[in-house]
Amino acid sequence: MDNITLTIGSADNASTKGNSSTGTTALASKYISTKAYTIRILDSFGALKTTLNRSGETVTLPVGNLNNGVYVVEIADGKNVYRQQLVVRH
Hints:
Elements: E1 7-10, E2 24-28, E3 37-43, E4 48-54, E5 58-62, E6 69-76, E7 81-88
Antiparallel strand pairs: 1-2, 2-5, 3-4, 3-6, 6-7
């Protein structure tokens, strides 16, 4: 994950910048390979809201159960950690 590029968009269009929180959010990166990684969603206080273990280039994040607000999406592959802000608006 040296040069990870993260795009957060609606589940229908992962290449759209911003996010449309209609229950799921698609997260895509051309630098995430098929090897396993962990995705965590943390609230603005650092409290863990969701953990997903995935592999592959596209992941759908469940955000329907998150309240409106600012979160941090954290991707870790065991060696590196990448963090990206996520704003949820229903």
